[in-house]
Structures are given as C-alpha cells and as structure tokens.
Amino acid sequence: MRADAQRNAEKLRAAAAELFQERGLQVPLKEIARRAGVSHGTLYNLFGTREALIDAVVADGAARRLDEVAQQALSHDDAWEGFAHYVERLCELQATDPAVAAVVGGRYPDAERLMAVCARSMEAARRIVRRAHEAGVLRPDFTNADLVFAFAANALLARATADAAPDAWRRQVTYLLDGLRTEAARTPLPAIQPTERQVREALRSLGEA
Amino acid sequence: MRADAQRNAEKLRAAAAELFQERGLQVPLKEIARRAGVSHGTLYNLFGTREALIDAVVADGAARRLDEVAQQALSHDDAWEGFAHYVERLCELQATDPAVAAVVGGRYPDAERLMAVCARSMEAARRIVRRAHEAGVLRPDFTNADLVFAFAANALLARATADAAPDAWRRQVTYLLDGLRTEAARTPLPAIQPTERQVREALRSLGEA
DNA sequence: AGGTAAATTGACAGCAGGGTCAAGTTCGAT
DNA sequence: ATCGAACTTGACCCTGCTGTCAATTTACCT
After folding, report:
1. Which residues in chain B are classed under CATH 1.10.10.60?
2. Partner of B137 for a Cys bridge, out of A63, B80, B93, B177, CB 3.0 to 4.6 A?
3. Cα Rg for chain B, rounded, in angstroms?
4. Does the domain formed by B59-206 have CATH 2.40.128?
5. Do the chains contact at A172 and B153, CB–CB below 8 Å?
C-alpha cells in the first residue's frame, strides 16, 4: 500500500470514528469522506463497504468495553449484584456507544469482526445468567433469549430518546431488574419461547427498524 | 365534491387501511395510490398529506380500541389486575396495530386527530396509574412518564421483532409488570426525572428513529 | 347536447443515499 | 528523471421516496 493511501485510510478512520460516535453507524459514507477531506470514491477504494469500515474502526473498542463489563460482573462477589450491574452497565454502554449497540443488537451481520464480538459477548452473558441462576437470585424462567431482547429494547429506547430524554432508559432498567429477582416472579410467563433461530433472525432484522 | 372524487377517496381510504395495517403507517403514498388504482396525484389532491390520510383512515379505530382497554382497566375490581391487564393489552394492541403504536408513541405530531386520541389515552392512563397507586399495589416511584416510555420501548421492540419473533415482547412485559408491584420495589430509582416537556419532545422524536 | 368547473393524470423536479469508473494525478522503484 | 503502477477524483447513474403542475378528461348543471 502506497504511503498516500495509508494516510488517507488513517484520515478516513479518524473521521469515521468521530462521526460514528456523533451520529451513529448509519451516517452517510459521503459525509465521512467529506470530513476526512477526501473524495467518497477513495473511501470506497480503501474500504469497499460500510461494514469493512465499521470493522476497522469500532470493533476493537466495542470488544474492550464489553469484555470489561462482563469481567466485572463475573468477578463480583454477589451473583445478583454482578448480574444487575452487568445489565445496567451494558445498557449504559448501549446508550452511549453506537458501536456497542450495534454489536449487542447484531445489526450489521456482514461486519465479520463485529459479529465475532457479538458472539463472544453473548457467551459472556450466558455465563453471567447461569451464575445468577445457580445462585438462585435470578428468576428461573428468565432465559438468555429474554436478555437479548431486553438489551434490544433498551438500545431502541435509548436511541429514540437520546436527544430529548437521554436518561429515560435508566428507570426502565431498574423496573426490569426488580422484576427479574427470584422473589419478584409472580406472573407466569407466556409459554411461547422463541427458538435460537428466531432470536438470530429477530436481531438481524433489528437493523432495518 | 364530485361523485368520482368521492369514489376515489373511498378507494384510497380502503387501500390505505389495508396497507397501513400490512406495512405500517410509513408505507409509500404511491403504493397506496397504486393499490387504489388511481394516480398518486389524485391522492395528493384529495388528502394533501400523509397525516391527513392517516387521520381520515385510522384515527377512529385506534380511538375505539384504546378507549375499550382503558375502560376495561378501570372497571376491573382489582386495581392491580386492572393496571396489569391494561399494560398487557395496550402492548398487544401496539404490536398488532400500527395505528395504536403511532398514537401511543406520539409519532405524526401533525396528525391532529391522532394527537387528540393520544392526549385522550394519556389521560386515561393517568387515571389507571392513579388508581393503582391509591390502592397501594403499584410501586409509588413509578410515574406516568415511565409508563409512556415503557410503552415506547415495547412499541419499538414489537416493531423490530414483528417478523422473526412476534411474541418476544410478551415476556418482557411480564418482567416489567412483576417489577412494578409495590413489593417488588427494591432498587432505588435514578433520581433524574424527565420533565413533561422532555417526555413530549422524546415522543416526538420517536418517529424519526 | 354543450359548456365549464372539478378532478385526474403522469411526466417532471427535487432530495438523499449508495455505488461505479474513465480520466487525471501522484508515488516511488529503477 | 522517468515511467508504470497505484491511487484519487468527481461526474455520473441508480433507487426510492416526496411533491407539483400543465394538459387532459370527466361529471353534472342548464
């Protein structure tokens, strides 16, 4: 790769990082090119697709943050506190960082690295849920799929209210958590459980909404 | 109004009703015209804006359904059961009927009749919340704004998962409700409360998401 | 039946975004 | 310093939507 191409790629990565954070991962590619001071043709040359650019720019950061919260959760003495903090912190990350929201929501199924991060973080979530279940603090009818959808709902709400009421999601999460304690379980759940396939499918289509 | 215009308006209303239900209120106006068998110019002639068409086609139905569930809630003997059923049924309506979702979410702020229905149904919601509070069954820190955002989150989730996991929202609602009982309240809520203004603003921007 | 106001039509313009590529420019190996 | 390959550029096309309007057709009143 020639030195000028290097430089341009760097400028594009920097511009993308800014704009992804400011305006979300769906920001028009032309704007990224504009902010980087190069033609959009160059962006297509160097990265080809939005997904490739995303992978190059935000995958690592998202992975780091997600690992960190999962780590904290598992190392917490109290299984409930670990779980609850995990949910809260992850929701906060989603509200704060569009890349994390994209990972957790499985948007951009064609972004390879992002999806790898998604898989990795779902595995961590499973462990955290299992630990809370085994400690008897998390209601037993709560499933991993439920957690995925809870995160999805939070991401959607946080995004939708980001401008006008940026903390609206916090109270919702509190209510949810209080409803997830073993002792809180009073209402029997609808029996219909989504299959693994449905969860994947649903996440995939989250992006379009 | 001439007889042919009458007929065309009728055809357009019918086509719009179908397509709004099938594909949501954001369905392209040209498609509505196509299904009605008239030119899209005619649609603009007769209705002018999407909002006017929505008002003409779905406002009454949505109002009726919303009134009905509110009525049922208030006439339930048990304040908790009334409240819980209300939340569940309203969420179901949102998942089922794009018009109700639009009303509750305050999308289409320019659709006058829809917004009137929105105001009316928020008033009903306030009464239902008050009743549950007064009976001591609903946790006292739960506010009307929280209910609005809970519905918003549900609508977003239901829409996003409509194809792949159409019942995903049900379990989430169950968890939420179990977290809303007075006895379930264990975690103190974040103190930040959105103002009335913020709630309106946030709803307004829901549409864009 | 005829005239005119009302209504319909579809071509057209505009906007926003994705994506391509021939022509021109720049790098850097020799 | 030169030359070919690598790279950049921006005009261009496409798609999908909204919205407008001059020309035409149609209803209906007399």
Report:
1. 1-48
2. B80
3. 19
4. no
5. yes
Of the candidates B201, B198, B179, B175, the residue with the CA atom closest to the CA atom of residue B189 = B179
From CA A96, how far away is CA A98, in angstroms rounded?
7
pLDDT at A96 over 70: yes
Class of domain A58-206 as given by CATH: mainly alpha
The answer to whether residues A37 and A11 touch, using CB atoms and an 8 Å cutoff, is yes
Cβ-defined contact of B192 to A163 (cutoff 8 Å): no
Provide CATH 1.10.357 ranges for chain B: 59-206
Considering the segment(s) B1-48 as one domain, its CATH architecture is Orthogonal Bundle (1.10)
Identify the band that residue A198 occupies on the pLDDT scale cut at 50, 70 and 90.
Answer: confident
Smallest CA–CA distance, residue B177 to chain A, in Å, is 7
Start and end residues for every CATH 1.10.357 domain found in chain A: 58-206
Q: Kindly report the backbone phi and psi dihedral angles of residue A107, in degrees, each rounded to the nearest multiple of 5, phi listed first.
A: -65, 165
